[in-house]
TrEMBL record:
The keyword Hydrolase applies. GO terms for molecular function: hydrolase activity. Residues 37-258 form the Amidohydrolase-related domain. The keyword Hydrolase applies. CDD domains: metallo-dependent_hydrolases. Keywords: Hydrolase. It comes from Modestobacter versicolor. This is Amidohydrolase.
Length: 279
């Protein structure tokens, strides 16, 4: 199959904002996200340089203090309202200690340009933790009310493992779109998701979506092969750069090679975003 670049590219998951330096893993304070952008103008310049026509933009996160990410919610809403190429995703938290901040974030859910709510268990909490259930119910209720997509980080092990995060799909995805960021996150997650669970959820009528950011090399190609073999799921996968934690050029090249161009590439790079977030 001849590989041809899609005419237009939409990015379903990237971040805005600069975080404070942090001593990760016992080392000195560092800022590993070297391409983080502090301003809307810098973000727009990146979109122009890349040729990215549409983007879902979420507050940057990664340091243990979530207040930095909550503080960026108004910035991403402002970005979406300033430039109609941009959709905003709001940072939320399942942790009970963040309940007030999450309530304040959800008060923005009806603002023009907001398209998603972001959840991550990297900073604590758990899908089945009773103390987290009120926040989780509130996030999904807001998504249901405003027809938003809930983005959930996936990575191997602990509370972000697909075994855990998949319960959110079981619990909420009958009537709320759930986007599993990073396609299960790593070897075990890819195999769990692509091997059966993703297709089982689609067959069961769940509103489940994913992207190929951070994916191990074999996984996007296997996913594309399974979608074509099974004849289902082509409308549920999106391109995402995860800038500044991902790499736009690398993510783009890998997914283009996996799809081989043509119809599947057009769906992943453009049309699925338009269907999910509006054209």
């Amino acid at each position: 199959m001849t590989t041809s670049a899609p005419g237009r590219v939409h990015d379903a998951h990237r971040h805005l904002g600069v975080l404070p330096a942090h001593p990760f893993y016992g080392g000195p304070p560092v800022n590993p996200d070297t391409t983080a952008r502090a301003t809307i103008d810098q973000l727009v310049a990146d979109l122009d340089r890349e040729g990215t026509e549409r983007a879902l933009v979420i507050p940057n996160y990664g340091v243990p203090d979530p207040t930095a990410s909550f503080a960026l919610n108004e910035l991403v809403v402002e970005a979406a309202q300033r430039d109609d190429r941009i959709r905003a995703g709001l940072w939320t938290s399942p942790r009970p200690q963040d309940a007030v901040a999450t309530e304040e974030a959800l008060a923005l859910a009806g603002e023009d340009g907001v398209a998603a709510l972001k959840l991550s268990f990297l900073l604590g909490g758990g899908v089945d933790d009773p103390a987290c259930r009120p926040q989780l119910d509130a996030v999904f209720a807001a998504a249901r009310q405003h027809d938003l997509v809930v983005h959930v980080h996936t990575s191997p092990g602990a509370a972000s493992d697909l075994d855990q995060v998949g319960r959110l799909v079981d619990r909420y995805a009958d009537d709320v779109a759930v986007h599993l960021v990073h396609m299960g996150g790593g070897m075990s997650g890819h195999i769990k998701l692509i091997g059966s669970r993703f297709f089982d959820w689609v067959a069961a009528g769940k509103r489940v979506y994913t992207d190929t950011s951070w994916a191990i090399g074999f996984a996007p190609r296997w996913f594309a092969t399974e979608i074509e073999r099974r004849g289902t799921g082509a409308d549920r996968v999106l391109f995402a750069s995860d800038q500044p934690w991902g790499d736009f050029e690398g993510e783009y090249a890998r997914l283009l090679a996996a799809t081989g161009g043509g119809e599947l590439a057009d769906l992943f790079f453009r049309r699925n975003f338009e269907s999910l977030h509006g054209s």
